[in-house]
UniProtKB/TrEMBL annotation:
Cross-referenced InterPro entries: DUF34/NIF3, DUF34/NIF3_sf
The entry's keywords: Metal-binding
Domain of life (superkingdom): Bacteria
Organism the protein comes from: Levilactobacillus tongjiangensis
Subunit annotation: Homohexamer.
Family: Belongs to the GTP cyclohydrolase I type 2/NIF3 family.
Pfam families per UniProt: DUF34_NIF3
Protein name according to UniProt: GTP cyclohydrolase 1 type 2 homolog
Length: 268
């Protein structure tokens, strides 16, 4: 089969036009008319992931994070990113990225995160900025816990759920009661007011910086930052989704999830 057959089906699930303005989603390298036999699903496209793709015989990498966020200024192969592009071309590996369109898709990234936290009565957090998104298409989710708990206990629960060795808790009231939780995968700091507007007691998101953290505390919002890498939850979910589509459509492909941890941070 051709890459475009899988891409066309995926873009029914999460159209590119649901991506936030300027987000470089879609085909990253290669051709939609290339043949695909084995798909490697990953969060990030890094040199070690490309080597993994070569080792497992994948000819298509499907990533959540776009590989090309910033255009190359030259093709100097001494630059690791450029060498990675060259390696992909040499091995005829096509790369596709689905970022904020997957974040907003019903049944996509933020629903997977909300389900992992066992949230109930789930609804959208912020409207998608995508050009064709309807009001029902939203980034982030907000929902209720089955049983109230404390901020600190819930933070410990997040460590377990997302399998992280540490996280950052932004709170002056760790003993406060948590009933409603907002979650947004990736860098959700700019959207914390939406969590407040929805009555969330805790906001779970990544990449919170220093001054916004002060603003969150001043607004009496408890925030849990387990990092950006929790979006790796997409790997098993996308793998299963593609396997289901392959079975339904009799596609002669194999789909596997990357086994690598691409989190650049280590807690010491």
């Amino acid at each position: 089969m051709l890459v475009r057959e899988l891409v066309d089906r995926f873009e029914q699930f999460a159209p590119k036009t649901w991506a936030e303005p300027g987000d470089p989603v879609g085909l990253q390298l290669g051709s939609l008319d290339a043949e695909v036999h084995k798909v490697l699903v990953t969060l990030d496209v890094r040199p070690e992931v490309v080597e993994e793709a070569i080792q497992v015989g994948a000819d298509f990498i499907f990533a959540h994070h776009p590989m090309v966020f910033h255009p190359a200024k030259n093709l100097d192969l001494a630059v690791p990113q450029n060498q990675m592009y060259a390696t992909l071309l040499k091995h005829d590996i096509t790369v596709y990225g689905a970022h904020t369109n997957l974040d907003s898709a019903p049944g996509g990234m933020n629903d997977w995160l909300a389900a992992a936290l066992d949230l109930q009565n789930v609804r959208g957090l912020v409207p998608s900025g995508g050009s064709t998104a309807t009001p029902a298409i939203t980034m982030g989710r907000v929902g209720d816990l089955a049983e109230p708990t404390s901020v600190m206990t819930f933070a410990e629960h997040c460590k377990t759920v997302f399998n992280v060795p540490g996280l950052r808790l932004i709170s002056h009231t760790p003993d406060a009661v948590v009933k409603r939780v907002a979650v947004l995968g990736g860098s959700g700091g700019p959207f914390y007011q939406a969590a407040i507007d929805h009555g969330a007691d805790v906001y779970v998101t990544g990449d919170i910086s220093y001054h916004p953290a002060h603003d969150m505390i001043a607004a009496a919002l408890n925030v849990i930052d387990p990092g950006h890498h929790i979006e790796s939850i997409c790997k098993p979910h996308l793998t299963q989704l593609f396997q289901d589509w392959a079975a339904e459509n009799h596609w002669p492909i194999t789909v596997v999830a990357s086994q690598l941890n691409t989190d650049p941070f280590t807690f010491i």
